[in-house]
Amino acid sequence: MKLYIGYDPAEDRAYRSAVSSLEKHSILSHERLSEDRLRSSGLLTRVVDKRGQMYDLPSNAPCSTEFATSRFMVPLLCQSGWAMFVDCDIVFLSDPTSIMSHADKNKAVIVVQHNHIGRGKKMVGMAQTAYPRKNWSSVMLFNCDHPANQRLSLRDINERPGRDLHAFYWLHNDEIGSLPVEWNWLVNVTEKPLHPKIAHFTNGGPWLDGWESAPNDNLWEQYA
């Protein structure tokens, strides 16, 4: 399994804590999914206005991170086998390679299927967009060999509205597998599982300027 972690310079501290937690629990290496690298190679051409909060023009909507849509390049970058993507605002609480016990070759992607709308503000005043299957794409296990993922083209990733990509528009419902909730616990949003594998600070955390202390901050701070 290959591991990709989304990267945004504005969340560099969050990314470094994610890496620190990975090194604590696993010997698995990872690839940093960086917008600069993808743009310089010509893979990422999506038009984004970065004056103030980032605004994604194909979506006609704000976006929270530089990897909001580039995450969907993972099957193209990996090409074959299994690949895991995670947002940078997570900490691993166990070895991510154990996710392979849930790998199902009949599924194109496997995710925690949250019932989460996500309206209002997050990350110290940042607007968030509500869309179907919110937060499913923040932790994904891709079956890069599944033929259904060949329906997703580079042009789609660069031109489709983000809400379509995050809703896995290219897949039929029976091509999306389900992970147990412990693989994407939404900290202070959903109930804490008994044995969480990944803590996802989707609303932000102590790495943000102006962050007010919140329950479970210590989970992030121990890896900072």
Radius of gyration: 16 Å
Outline: globular
What CATH architecture do you see?
Answer: Alpha-Beta Complex
Give the end-to-end Cα distance, rounded to a whole number of Å: 26 Å
**Residues in β-strands, percent:** 15-25%
CATH topology: Spore Coat Polysaccharide Biosynthesis Protein SpsA, Chain A
Structure description:
The protein is α/β, with parallel strands linked by helices. The protein has one domain: Spore Coat Polysaccharide Biosynthesis Protein SpsA, Chain A (Alpha-Beta Complex), CATH 3.90.550. Helix content is 18%, strand content 20%. The chain contains six helices and 14 strands. It has helices spanning 12-25, 35-40, 74-78, 154-159, 162-166, 217-221, and strands spanning 2-7, 31-34, 48-49, 55-56, 61-62, 82-86, 90-92, 109-111, 121-122, 126-127, 139-143, 176-178, 185-186, 198-200. The strands form four sheets. A six-stranded mixed sheet has the order 2-1-6-11-8-12. The two termini are 26 Å apart. 38% of the residues are buried.
